[in-house]
């Protein structure tokens, strides 16, 4: 008995030492003493944004994803171009489609008024993502906090790590694995496409020239194909049309599991969506499961969001707490 206690004591000491060596862990109550209203300040800002424009929660949720996949969740995506680096806002995945930055500016400004120099932009983005889901009808979770903000951004890495909408399942799984997320996380987090919009340019190859065949993607539902071709004429598609289609054609502002039912009906919008169902194997199984079990989807989504939100955070003394999410404090 005594030796068991001794061993577990030693284990505890070793573990906490490891923790010290590897930096600090994120925790839910991080701002309990320093800014107890942090989460309510964010929620008010996201609510206001949603009232302004029903699409904004989707746009904001996407920013957290595009942040975490590039150097970890460090608010690098929010930085404007600076003297010594080019920001990520003009990377292929972001240029012309990343949006909602003004909402973050407003929330951050209010945060600075109430708790100056305390709450990081990376944490604000993680809280915003949760609130975007909840205000759209999804299930809440406790956001882990304590991230700090990067001193730099990396457009090359944004191009490299964020998957393209033309991706097949192999590529999607590989890109998620590269940041420590599983194939299941990938299918689950793709369910974020239950809200929001995409430009024709993100899917027009499917309508006219899938994989260079000169023909539409045969897996698209015929009626759905026709309506998309009407929205995105070939000429406009060639000229990078900015017309928008909902990612979930049935309930584009409601966070639910309809996305997975759409895929099963050949009504997924992006190639990266539809292949989750049309490619035989593991991903298809989860599309079926989530399609018939909303609770299971919500539960998995919560877990995968927490996992995505924990990708390589800057903690302790690394990075900084930015005053303005668009610039590093040194202004370089
Ligand atoms: C699995 C790989 C993914 C790919 C290939 C992908 C690709 C895309 C593309 C191409 C768009 C439309 C951009 C445009 O208009 O050009 C989009 C929109 C969106 N994505 Fe993803 N995405 C993926 C995963 C995710 C994840 C993990 C999330 C969040 C957890 C997410 C959230 C969103 C949201 C909410 C929108 C709509 C944004 C808006 O309306 O402004 N996506 N995605
Ligand atoms: C971003 O989009 C704008 C407007 O379409 C375009 O002029 C610019 O060249 C693009 N930038 C990059 C880096 O692709
Ligand atoms: C840009 O300058 C900041 C501040 O000196 C520095 O921390 C950062 O690493 C620099 N970034 C690049 C890409 O050189
Ligand atoms: C930016 O990302 C690229 C691709 O991942 C990497 O090779 C490069 O070292 C990064 N640049 C900086 C300054 O971190
Ligand atoms: C998936 O896409 C990648 C990159 O375009 C390609 O190299 C690979 O052959 C594709 N895999 C399958 C199974 O189609
Ligand atoms: C389809 O795309 C391929 C390359 O992917 C190209 O060679 C071909 O000309 C395109 N066909 C049409 C009809 O646009």
UniProtKB/TrEMBL annotation:
Protein known as: Uncharacterized protein
Species name: Diphasiastrum complanatum
């Amino acid at each position: 008995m005594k030796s068991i206690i001794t061993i577990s004591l030693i284990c505890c000491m070793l573990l906490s030492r490891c923790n010290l060596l590897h930096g600090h862990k994120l925790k839910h109550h991080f701002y309990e003493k320093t800014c107890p209203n942090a989460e309510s300040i964010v929620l008010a800002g996201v609510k206001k944004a949603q009232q302004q424009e029903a699409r904004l929660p989707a746009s904001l949720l996407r920013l957290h994803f595009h942040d975490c996949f590039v150097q970890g969740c460090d608010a690098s995506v929010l930085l404007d171009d600076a003297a010594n680096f080019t920001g990520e806002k003009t990377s292929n995945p972001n240029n012309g489609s990343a949006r909602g930055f003004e909402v973050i500016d407003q929330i951050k400004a209010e945060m600075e008024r109430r708790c100056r120099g305390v709450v990081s932009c990376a944490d604000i983005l993680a809280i915003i993502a949760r609130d975007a889901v909840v205000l759209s009808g999804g299930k809440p979770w406790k956001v882990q906090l304590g991230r700090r903000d990067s001193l730099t951004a990396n457009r090359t890495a944004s191009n490299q790590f964020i998957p393209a909408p033309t991706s097949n399942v192999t590529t999607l799984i590989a890109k998620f694995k590269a940041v420590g997320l599983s194939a299941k996380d990938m299918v689950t987090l793709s369910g974020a496409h239950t809200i929001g919009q995409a430009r024709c340019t993100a899917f027009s190859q499917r309508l006219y020239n899938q994989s260079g065949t000169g023909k539409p993607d045969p897996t698209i539902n015929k009626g759905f194909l026709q309506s998309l071709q009407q929205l995105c004429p070939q000429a406009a598609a060639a000229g990078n049309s900015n017309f928008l289609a909902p990612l979930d054609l049935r309930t584009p502002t409601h966070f639910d599991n309809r996305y997975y039912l759409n895929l099963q009906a050949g009504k997924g919008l992006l190639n990266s969506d539809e292949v989750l169902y049309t490619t035989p194997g593991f991903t298809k199984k989860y599309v079926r499961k989530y399609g018939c079990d909303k609770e299971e989807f919500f539960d998995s989504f919560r877990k995968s969001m927490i996992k995505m939100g924990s990708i390589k955070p800057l903690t302790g003394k690394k990075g900084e707490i930015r005053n303005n999410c668009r610039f590093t404090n040194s202004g370089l």
